[in-house]
Every structure is written in C-alpha cells, then in structure tokens.
Design a protein that fits this description.
Keywords: Apoplast, Copper, Glycoprotein, Lignin degradation, Metal-binding, Oxidoreductase, Repeat, Secreted, Signal. The chain has about 575 residues and is mostly beta strands. The chain contains six helices and 33 strands. The chain binds 2-acetamido-2-deoxy-beta-D-glucopyranose (12 copies) and copper (II) ion. The site of one 2-acetamido-2-deoxy-beta-D-glucopyranose has 4 residues, from loops.
C-alpha cells in the first residue's frame, strides 16, 4: 500500500471512530406522486403520466450504504409500479417493483413505501415504471455517491450531469402497445428520441426543446448516461470530444476512451468529458441515433443536444458560431458494437475485486428470440403470415399471472400461479443462427427456475434467427452478473469456454446479446426471492421474452427473505 493510500485509510478510520456520523449511513426520504401533466413536444400538447409533474422525473441521490424510502402515491387511473433498476435489493425483493412479479400494482388512490438499502454499489442507475409501457414517461436517475469517506477511483469531476435517453410517442404509448397486442403486429415506432426529455433541433418545432450542456474550458465533467429508451439501442457521440468510460451499471470499470459509445435500454454508464483547454468559439453537437439489426420498421431519427462553452467574459452564446457535428456509425454496425462491448472490463483492484464465480453449480442454455402465436379464431392478425408476434426464451413465451409471484412463493400459494419447470436447455435443439425452422410457433405459460441459495449459475444466452436475428438487451433483477464470454453464431460448449474471461469480466445488470450470437454470464444466487429476467426492449418483453428465477432462502436468518411489509398492494 502506498503511503498516500495508507494515510487515506488511517484518515478514514480516524474519521469514522472520532466522528461516527461523518462516515455513517443515512435514510433518504422521497415522495413520488404519480400524476398527469401536459407536455408539448413535436408541435403537439399531450397529457403524460409523470412523477411530481416532472419529465424526466426527480433524481434519487444517495450514498452507498444509505437506506432509501420512496413513498409512491398513485393519483392516476392506471395501475402503477416503480422498479429501482439495477439496485441489488438484498433481502428486499418486496421493493423491486415489477408488476405481478414482486408486487401487485399500486391502484388508483393507493400508495406503497419502497424500502431498500444500497449495498456495494456506486455510480448511476435509474428508476422506471415496471408495468405495461408506462416507463416511456415514468423514469429518472438514481445517483449513488461513494461513501462519505471514499472517493472516486478517478479524478474528481468539476461537475456531474445526468444525461437520460428516452423515446417519445405523439400517441399514448399505452394505446400503442394495447393495439399491437390486439392485432398481433409490431407496435408503432416512436416519433423521436430524447435527451433529458428533449428531442432537439432535428425534429419539427423542437429547437426550443434542445438539451444544452454549458461548460467551462479546461474542466472535467462527468456525464451520467442512462438509457431509458424503450425499443432501441443508441449510438452516442459528441463532436470533437472524446469520452472516458469509468463506470457501467454502478460498477467501476477499467477506464477507456472512445469517440462513440453504444448504450442499450436498461444500461447506465458514467463518462468523463474533458473540455478543451481554451475557449473554442464553436458549438458542438452531441447526438444519438439507433443501432438496429432487426427486420421491419424502427425509429431512424436522431436526437441532438448542444455542448456550449461559456464565454469567459460571461457573454451569452453567439448564435453565429460554427457548429460541429459528430459522426455516428451506420445503423447496422454490428462490428463496431462487438468491438466496443469487448472493451468493458471490471476495474478489479484490491478494493473492488471482480468476484466472478470460478466454479459453476448449475448450467443453463437459453435461446432468446422472436416467434409467433396463433391468431384467435375469427380474427385477422397482422403478425408474420397472419399470426401474432411473440417472443420467447427456450420457446416459452412467458405469461404474467394475475397475482404477484413473490407473494405466491412466500405464502406457498403457487398452485395455479406458476410452475417450476422452466426448461434448462431447449427442448428441441436446432441450428439457432442458421436457416430458421419453418415452424415459428412458441408455447406460452408461467414457468420458473428454482435455485438453491448461493448456487453459482452459468447461463448461455443464445440469440436465434427466427423471424430475424436481432440483438436483445437482457436485464436480470436482483443480481449483477459477469459477462465471461460472447461470440457470433452458435455457442460451442466444447470450444468457447476455453476463451472465457474469469479474471476481469465486466459486471453489470443488462447486456446486449449480439444479433446472431451469444453471451455467457455467471452470477451467484445470493439473494432470496423471485427475480425477473427479461429483454429490456419493451416490445419484446410484451411479447413474452421474459422469465423468472426463484432463489430459495439460505439456512441463516441473514439469508432469508423477510415477510412483506403489511401495506404491500393486493391484487
Ligand atoms: C391538458 O390538456 C388537455 C387537453 O389536451 C386539457 O383538457 C387539460 O385541461 C390540460 N390540463 C392541464 C392541467 O393543463
Ligand atoms: C425498512 O426495512 C427495514 C429492513 O427490513 C426495516 O428494518 C425498517 O423498519 C423498514 N422501514 C420502514 C419505514 O418501513
Ligand atoms: C472539429 O473536428 C473537425 C473534424 O475532425 C475539425 O475539422 C475541426 O477543426 C474541429 N474543430 C474544433 C473546434 O476542434
Ligand atoms: C437511417 O437514417 C440515415 C440518415 O440519418 C440514413 O442514411 C439511413 O439510410 C437510414 N437507414 C434506414 C434503414 O432507413
Ligand atoms: C467566432 O466565430 C464566428 C463565426 O465562425 C466569427 O464570426 C467570430 O468573429 C468569431 N469570434 C471570435 C472571438 O473569434
Ligand atoms: C473491430 O476490431 C477488429 C480487431 O481489432 C478490427 O479489425 C475491425 O476493423 C474492428 N471493426 C470495427 C467495425 O470497428
Ligand atoms: C397459449 O398456448 C395455448 C395452448 O397451450 C394456446 O391455445 C394460446 O393461444 C396461447 N396464447 C398465446 C397468447 O400465445
Ligand atoms: C367463428 O365464426 C363462426 C361463423 O361466423 C361461428 O359459428 C363461430 O362460433 C365463431 N367462433 C368463435 C370462436 O367466435
Ligand atoms: C410465411 O409463409 C411462407 C409460405 O408458406 C413461408 O415461406 C415463410 O417462411 C413464412 N414466413 C414466416 C415468417 O413464417
Ligand atoms: C448453422 O447454419 C449456419 C448458417 O447457415 C452454417 O454456417 C452452420 O454450418 C450451421 N451449423 C450447423 C451445426 O449445422
Ligand atoms: C421448410 O419449408 C420449405 C418449403 O415449404 C421446405 O422446402 C423445407 O424443407 C422446410 N424446412 C424444414 C426444416 O422443414
Ligand atoms: C389494476 O390491478 C388490479 C390488481 O391486479 C386489477 O384487478 C385491475 O384490473 C387493474 N386495473 C387496470 C385498469 O388494469
Ligand atoms: Cu429493468
């Protein structure tokens, strides 16, 4: 240990013994009123559902170790739940939020107090609604600062700014998905992408709705990037500036520098932006547009904001200044995405060790992709060949029950709610990424996997080419996982494990499974409860690309899920 580090450690110990409150944790209280409010975007005024009339919603700010209490009060006619995306929820599964998984929805006029403690995480996460498509307007940042006596493992930024990507529909997103589920066709794509709720100058009537980041020369800014987008992965770049990525999904990483990054729905990442050492007399666009590999239509528009240098004299921004634009990869740049994804490595120093499971207790192989379900009799459907679109894991299109699975599990009432026979491997293997089978029909049901406490799991997520190979950002609740391997084509259980990274793999909660490829993840099932795993493309989740794990209690009291809070909503 260096003398400086030793001094820092001693100082930390001194501070925490002499001034306990200085290093101790606190409780953070928030009230989220779910309300309707009117917003004008793209030449239209419409009513949206928001938290406290703010869009994007309010920031949750806490330090590692803090307890967070959020009272969510539902004043709208829709059922609502809120998910604290990426929060580990150690033994607090009742506060995780996905509707009909860990709780029944908060109905009109009801409230629910989400109660959780932030353990072993620091960086950026976000919260969002977790029922139907309400998260299109119900989202906001979660900022986890290091403990009071700790600092960042990189230079302290001059300023920190949340930058949230979203997707905007002129129509009501609830109507969009309800209609699509009715007809079986693909839902209408969004009308705009947004940065902090603002579409920017490339859309009609939107110049005044443009995100502006005003900076001083010669400083380091930390952008807390969050993708709250619904159905699209986004490339992001800032003209004439590079970004150093230092954190992903609230885990520090080995820093690397890039001009362009990709962020999938559900991912968060902190980047350092060094401003020019001088006043450049220019304005720089920051822009995002999609990476898309699927078939069919998608929102191919571009959101932009401005990076503006404050003139030293304090003069206002000169409108005639030259504007530089970033160049973004073509929409189908799978090569870029694969290279970029591989650059993420855990920081893995003595303080933040990547605890990747070295020995695997249970192996799973899940195919993920699209499919079809039959059109109801006497109806016409707009999905593939007159069927309805579906999506599945191991050919099971997951059907949410009408009561919360966690309650059913905890009170041993699972009969008629779910079964515990989710297939570990595909029941009928095929060439997953070759010519797709003619039969695209998937089965449906509510099937779960049961894991004993502290099981180490290795899971291969294999994309399929059924109805088109497409990348899928898979999100696991309740755990971070390590991405130990990835590749294109079919996973080869004999060859591919030899190349697994068991030293410094990236640890995160959402990973893009490559279009026509696979990823291998490992996690330790150390958190008792029922944990959702799903594609973070909302359309694929709606079609059934989701499942859940039950992690049983361990023998010790500290390894058991406590009972639900008495005020938990009922179905
Ligand atoms: C919102 O807009 C609707 C019309 O689109 C209008 O009827 C309503 O009064 C507005 N509400 C508020 C709070 O401004
Ligand atoms: C929050 O949860 C903790 C741990 O279960 C519990 O001790 C505490 O009483 C809860 N707080 C509130 C306000 O419900
Ligand atoms: C921005 O980048 C462009 C293209 O690389 C270059 O021509 C221009 O001089 C740069 N402008 C500034 C202010 O750095
Ligand atoms: C998407 O838009 C870009 C221009 O912004 C255009 O070059 C490209 O051809 C479009 N791609 C598709 C698939 O429409
Ligand atoms: C800044 O650039 C603009 C347009 O490129 C030019 O008109 C103006 O004179 C420049 N100002 C300074 C202080 O260089
Ligand atoms: C990806 O990386 C490989 C090897 O470094 C390189 O040859 C290739 O050009 C890169 N592809 C893209 C699209 O950046
Ligand atoms: C679910 O599967 C049943 C047969 O097991 C089928 O009749 C039904 O249409 C399927 N529903 C959906 C939505 O795919
Ligand atoms: C479908 O239509 C036929 C003829 O109109 C009718 O006899 C039958 O009951 C209908 N089936 C369903 C499931 O509605
Ligand atoms: C639709 O049907 C045609 C002809 O039967 C077949 O070639 C094609 O693969 C089918 N497409 C899908 C998406 O099932
Ligand atoms: C799977 O299909 C791909 C593409 O058609 C082909 O290259 C590969 O050899 C096939 N693999 C097997 C095991 O049949
Ligand atoms: C799929 O259908 C085509 C034509 O309908 C047929 O030639 C082919 O053998 C079928 N493939 C499989 C795997 O059944
Ligand atoms: C709201 O949730 C309750 C409980 O699950 C359910 O009975 C009710 O139908 C839902 N209401 C709406 C409008 O979806
Ligand atoms: Cu999520």
């Amino acid at each position: 240990m260096s003398p400086a580090a030793m001094a820092g450690l001693l100082f930390g110990i001194l501070v925490s013994t002499i001034l306990p409150e200085f290093a101790s944790c606190m409780t953070r209280h928030y009230t989220f009123n779910i309300v309707q409010h009117n917003v004008t975007r793209l030449c239209n005024t419409k009513t949206i559902i928001s938290v406290n009339g703010m869009f994007p919603g309010p920031k949750i700010v806490a330090r590692e170790g803090d307890q967070v209490l959020v009272n969510v009060v539902n004043h709208v006619t829709n059922n609502v739940t809120i998910h604290w995306h990426g929060i580990r929820q150690l033994r607090s599964g009742w506060a995780d939020g996905p509707a009909y998984v860990t709780q029944c929805p908060i109905q009109t006029g009801q409230s629910y107090l989400y109660n959780f403690t932030i353990t072993g995480q620091r960086g950026t996460l976000f919260w969002h609604a977790h029922i139907s498509w309400l998260r299109s307007t119900l989202y906001g940042p979660i900022i986890i600062l290091p403990r009071r006596n700790e600092s960042y493992p990189f230079r302290k930024p001059y300023k920190e700014v949340p930058v949230i990507f979203g997707e905007w529909w002129n129509a009501d997103p609830e109507a969009v998905i309800n209609q699509a589920l009715q007809t079986g066709g693909g839902p209408n794509v969004s009308d705009a992408y947004t940065i902090n709720g603002l579409p920017g100058p490339f859309y009609n009537c939107s110049s005044k709705h443009t995100f502006k980041l005003r900076v001083k020369p010669g400083k380091t800014y930390m952008l807390r990037l969050i993708s709250a987008a619904m159905n699209d992965e986004l490339f992001f770049s800032i003209a004439n500036h590079t970004m150093t990525i230092v954190e992903a999904d609230a885990v520090y990483i080995k820093p690397f520098t890039t001009n362009v990054l990709l962020i999938t729905p559900g991912q968060t990442t902190n980047v350092l932006l060094e401003t020019k050492p001088y006043y450049p007399n220019a304005t720089f666009l920051m822009a995002a547009r999609p990476y898309f590999t699927g078939q069919g239509t998608f929102d191919n528009s571009t959101v932009a904001g401005f990076l503006e240098y404050e003139h030293p004299s304090g003069q206002s921004f000169n409108k005639r200044m030259k504007i530089f634009k970033p160049s973004l990869p073509p929409v189908t740049s799978t090569g870029f995405v694969a290279n970029f994804t591989k650059k993420f490595r855990s920081l893995n120093n003595p303080k933040y060790t990547a605890r990747v499971p070295q020995i695997v207790d249970k192996r799973f192989f899940f195919t993920i992709g699209l499919g079809s379900s039959p059109c109801p009799q006497n109806s016409t459907c707009q999905g593939p060949n007159g069927t309805k679109f579906a999506a599945a894991i191991n050919n099971v299109s997951f059907a949410l029950p009408t009561t919360a699975m966690l309650q059913a599990y905890f009170f041993k009432n699972s009969n008629g709610v779910y079964k515990t026979d989710f297939p570990t491997y595909p029941r009928s293997p095929f060439n997953y990424t070759g010519t797709p089978p003619n039969n695209t029909k998937v089965s449906n049901g509510t099937h779960l996997v049961v894991l004993r406490f502290n099981t180490t799991v290795e899971l291969i997520l294999q994309d399929t080419s059924i109805l088109g190979a497409e990348s899928h950002p898979l999100h696991l609740h309740g755990f971070n996982f390590f991405v130990v391997g990835e590749g294109f084509g079919n996973y080869d259980p004999n060859k591919d494990p030899r190349n697994f990274n068991l030293v410094d793999p990236i640890e995160r909660n959402t990973i893009g499974v490559p279009a026509g490829g696979w990823v291998a993840i490992r996690f330790l099932a150390d958190n008792p409860g029922v944990w959702f795993m799903h594609c973070h493309f909302e359309v694929h989740t709606s079609w059934g690309l989701k499942m859940a794990w039950i992690v049983l209690d361990g023998p010790l009291t500290s390894q058991k899920l406590p009972p639900p809070p008495p005020e938990i909503p009922k179905c």
